[in-house]
Amino acid sequence: MDTASDREPRQERSRVTRARLLDAAVGCLAERGVSGATVGAVAERAGVSRGAAQHHFPTREGLLLAALRHMVESRSADLRRRADAVPAGPERTEAVVQMVVDAFSGPDFDAALQLWAAAASDPALRERVIPLEEQVGRAVHHAVVELLGADESIPGNREAVQATLDLARGLGLANLLTDDTARRRRVVAQWAVMLDRTLREPLPSTRSPRSTTKR
Amino acid sequence: MDTASDREPRQERSRVTRARLLDAAVGCLAERGVSGATVGAVAERAGVSRGAAQHHFPTREGLLLAALRHMVESRSADLRRRADAVPAGPERTEAVVQMVVDAFSGPDFDAALQLWAAAASDPALRERVIPLEEQVGRAVHHAVVELLGADESIPGNREAVQATLDLARGLGLANLLTDDTARRRRVVAQWAVMLDRTLREPLPSTRSPRSTTKR
């Protein structure tokens, strides 16, 4: 029979193996797409035996959805970490926009995009991908509202924050096939100017009667 | 030997067959992805024999790239058509933003997205997809600058127009798995307000010395 001290390192090894498989699945998805992210290919990339990989993830769909969940969690954790480091003062809006743009780019985004593309023609996958994406959207939206102190009771502010997420998604897509870093930096800076102005000085025609008392 | 009058209807039939194959390829890509868009599946959807399809497009890659080129051309033609109908006055900016957003949505966008996703893991495909995407980007950017009379010598204006295209790409992606029509309408309206304000009243800090003489 196992003693408690035997079980603990075994559980720890199992966690490490699982984490390596999930990281490898993200890498396979980003570089080779869904068709290239088989359990075997992911096991090889992770340096784990195929049998061990199948023990953790009997099906490819299970592995890929776990990888998406893993990305969602690591993006959320990254947001929380970066939120603490956002500067006060005039650079704040640009730092927050940059944070959002970073949340929708890099290998995690490229991997998620492969799953979205596959989900477009696979209703069962789509049903499972949508709630995870909504979770990311809500987490990022909430973080931006908090960090910028955006008053969503003022008409237009909620949509301006949503547009920031849509812009970030679009910039992620523009960066998929070519290195768009330099252009992206200029677009982020300009969007930050526009967003900041909207949040600080709403146009009279879009200002709600409650705005003066709510701020 | 063929007479000129024999050749003409034959050439016309050939053009019609080709156009049907390209439309069918867009549909297959959007609904089934690259792996579902085989020459055989496209021929079946187009109601064309497999032999005839292979005569026009011996390889799947050739067919899919021709479909992308076909989408690029039809998007550009659609832009030109809609540009003539853009209203003057205060609704103009929103109409232009809506036009851009429409250019990056629907079955054409969904089909293009499948090709982008496939190109991310296929360097040969990527090399051929990039110039076509750059062509669309330039055409849409140019149309927006013209239609809004945006003065790109004023710092920030060029990036504000680019951001509009990035937003449109992001909204297209957000609409891939769920029907995002209602939210998208509100984001477009707010974006138009922000873009209009930026183009009409650049912030003092981003206004170039030339702006007063150029406008």
UniProtKB/TrEMBL annotation, chains A, B:
HTH tetR-type domain sequence ranges: 15-75
Keyword annotations from UniProtKB, A to Z: DNA-binding
GO MF term list: DNA-binding transcription factor activity; transcription cis-regulatory region binding
Pfam families per the UniProt record, alphabetical: TetR_N (PF00440)
InterPro entries (UniProt xref): Homeodomain-like_sf, HTH-type_TetR-like_transc_reg, HTH_TetR
DNA-binding region: 38-57
PANTHER family reported in the protein's UniProt record: HTH-TYPE TRANSCRIPTIONAL REGULATOR PKSA (PTHR30055:SF226), HTH-TYPE TRANSCRIPTIONAL REGULATOR RUTR (PTHR30055)
Name of the protein described by the UniProt record: Helix-turn-helix domain-containing protein
Species the sequence originates in: Nocardiopsis alba
